[in-house]
Design brief:
Blueprint lengths: L17 E14 L2 E8 L2 E8 L4 H8 L6 E10 L12 E12 L16 H6 L1 H4 L3 H23 L3 E2 L17 E3 L7 E3 L5 H9 L4 E9 L11 E10 L3 H20 L9 E3 H8 L13 E2 L1 H4 L5 H5 L2 E7 L7 H12 L9 E5 L5 E3 L7 H10 L6 E8 L1 H18 L10 E5 L4 E4 L4 E4 L26 E6 L2 E8 L4 H10 L4 H14 L7 E7 H9 L29 H6 L11
Parallel strand pairs: 3-5, 6-9, 11-17
Antiparallel strand pairs: 1-2, 1-4, 2-3, 4-5, 7-8, 9-10, 10-22, 12-13, 13-16, 14-15, 14-16, 17-20, 18-19, 20-21, 21-22
Helix pairs in contact: 4-6, 4-15, 7-12, 13-14
Bound molecules: aspartic acid (ASP).
Aspartic acid (ASP) binds next to strand 21 and strand 22.
């Protein structure tokens, strides 16, 4: 037997037991006649002690141990004279009687401790060493527990996990596909699933009633902190349900996870917000409701006072930033520059300082009386001591900009406490999204999402106003997941494809399977998918999903550890009948 215990489990109650531990050498310290070794494994750290006086040879062997050597130590659990309150094994140490080196290690490229000296690239290149560090193990453990609890909850609600294929035909989720060339079928390609959307709907036609799958999905998109080319969804679908049924079941799942993972009881109904309110009040379809600072539409209040910028604008809106009326000119200039950055995209910023002493100061003093400015400030939610920030432009873009500014001010004022969780459902999304560049409508969610019954009549006449039976679960400003009630009637599905600009041939070519399946008794159905990585990162208090993914890609979609993507041999290219075009400047 290599070991009797792990490095995280021995306590004062084990004193005098003879034990065998295995692990990695984190640190060797020599103090007078004693040598101490911190022995680490995935469960924790236990201190080993060697004494020159009692066993000089063994002590000498311990002194020569290098960092990350793999060793086996046999000894007796003893009480520590100086206890370490920071670790659970801190009351004891092992007085070692036998030491075996199981494997040596080269000096690792960074220190494998909670706070490492390694830079991001180095940590990624040696991710298998990075994973030895406690913060990373903690993230993976949390993720493991989440998957386990998801399965436990869904199994308890009669959901069945069914695996769906990875080599498929493209399902549109709005991103670019990763494709895989077929060797057997010359010139043809599989797509890797952006999600198992069509399969799960087909499983409903197949009578699998309640399906789920913890599944890898692939989207070739530009990367951000919360995006990876491959990511994991908790993908679910149910038959014979309306929106309310889906929300109930999955609100239950969310509460189960908060309870089991964070010990938080959420015994209240999650708030629901219609998409339009989310956009108008928070400037985002994923509002962070941990703090107020709501957006107010002040268009009517500011127009026709001779200030051309406002007069020409479609929409003028404001937020009140609590306690910031004392911002200096320099601070206001800095915020103005901040909103003008391309990432935000505002043209400029107007402010009103509603001072503690009731006086008012604004960058548009010339056009408005102090009374008018006070009124605007109050309407925007400000009291004395608050600062009102105003943006204007076209409605949706300006709301988005204000949403970004609101989050920034929330960050600056420390209003986004990681230990507070504020979930909500955003519902009644628009069915379509207008794309300026291509001058056409796209499905906001995906083409299988059903319109609201009340809006059937306006689908052709006023598509921009049509709402979908679609919903997102949002927590702390993060879209944790979303889904919809699907179309299950083939005539309506065909109508939808038409609205989205698919010719009948094109719809058939891409979705013939689903269209056909719907002819054979498709039950009413709906579902959703959660992003496991994002949710795990949120519960782990991480800003990046990389913290909860064992082997993530870097920001250039590269796995620098295993070196992928990489070139393939000419033989492989030949087999696939592929020719690599030289790169040209586009
Ligand atoms: N397939 C959708 C997605 O990946 C989720 C759903 O509609 O169930 O976003």
């Amino acid at each position: 037997m290599y070991r009797t215990h792990n490095c995280g489990e021995l306590r004062a109650a084990d004193i005098n037991k003879t034990v065998t531990l295995c692990g990695w050498v984190q640190k060797v310290r020599n103090l007078g006649g004693m040598t101490f070794v911190d022995l680490r494994d995935r469960y924790g750290i236990t201190q080993l002690v060697f004494n020159t006086e009692t066993n000089a040879e063994l002590c000498e062997k311990a002194r020569k141990l290098g960092r990350e050597f793999v060793i086996q130590a046999i000894g007796v659990v003893t009480e520590r004279s100086s206890k370490n309150k920071d670790i659970p094994t801190g009351d004891i140490e092992i007085t070692v009687q036998e030491l075996n080196i199981l494997n040596k290690s080269e000096i690792p490229p960074f220190t494998i401790e909670d706070n490492t000296d390694g830079g991001e690239d180095l940590l990624m290149k040696y991710r298998y060493l990075d994973i030895r560090r406690r913060p990373i193990i903690k993230g993976l453990q949390l993720r493991n527990k989440m998957s386990f609890e998801v399965r436990r909850y869904l199994d308890g609600h009669s959901f069945m996990e069914v695996e769906t294929p990875m080599l498929i035909k493209s399902t549109p989720e709005g991103a670019r596909d990763y494709v895989v060339p077929s060797r057997i079928h010359h010139g043809e390609f599989y797509a890797l699933p952006q999600s198992p959307q069509q399969y799960k709907q087909l499983l409903m036609v197949a009578g699998i009633d309640r399906y789920y799958q913890i599944v890898k999905c692939f989207r070739d998109e530009d990367l951000r902190a919360d995006r990876q080319p491959e990511f994991t969804q908790i993908d679910c679908e149910m038959s014979f349900v309306e929106q309310e049924d889906v929300l109930q079941v999955f609100e239950g799942l969310a509460k189960h996870l908060f309870k089991e993972i964070k010990g938080i009881d959420m015994n209240y109904q999650f708030p629901r917000m219609v998409w339009k309110d989310a956009m108008e009040q928070y400037g985002s379809d994923k509002p962070d409701i941990r703090f107020g600072m709501k957006i107010h539409n002040i268009t009517d209040k500011v127009k026709n006072h001779g200030f051309k910028v406002f007069d020409d604008a479609e929409y003028v809106c404001a937020i009140a930033v609590g306690g910031c009326a004392n911002y200096s000119r320099k601070q206001l200039d800095e915020i103005t520059e901040w909103v003008k950055r391309p990432q935000v995209g505002a043209k400029g910023l107007v402010y009103i300082k509603y001072n503690e002493d009731n006086t008012i100061k604004s960058s548009v003093d010339k056009f408005y009386s102090p009374e008018e400015l006070t009124e605007i400030a109050k309407f925007s939610g400000a009291g004395t001591g608050d600062l009102v920030l105003i943006l204007c432009g076209k409605k949706l873009p300006v709301l988005n900009q204000m949403g970004v500014l609101r989050i920034e001010m929330g960050n600056r004022l420390g209003l986004r406490d990681k230990n507070i969780f504020a979930p909500l459902w955003v519902v009644d999304f628009p069915l379509f999204e207008w794309d300026e560049a291509t001058q056409r409508f796209y499905a906001m969610h995906h083409p299988f999402t059903s319109p609201k019954k009340e809006d059937y009549d306006i689908l052709e006449t006023n598509p921009g106003e049509a709402r979908a039976n679609a919903y997102d679960l949002v927590i702390n400003g993060i879209e944790i997941g979303g889904g919809s009630i699907r179309i299950h009637d083939s005539a309506l599905q065909v109508r939808m494809f038409k609205l989205l600009g698919f010719t009948e041939e094109k719809a058939q070519a891409q979705f013939s399977c689903l269209i056909n399946a719907f002819k054979y008794g498709a039950p009413p159905h709906g579902g959703l998918a959660f992003g496991l990585d994002r949710w795990a990162a949120l519960l782990n208090g991480s800003d990046s999903i990389k913290d909860v993914i064992a082997f993530p890609k870097n920001n250039a979609a590269r796995d620098i550890m295993i070196d992928a993507p990489s070139k393939i041999s000419d033989e492989q290219l030949d087999e696939l009948s592929l020719i690599i075009k030289p790169l040209t400047d586009k």
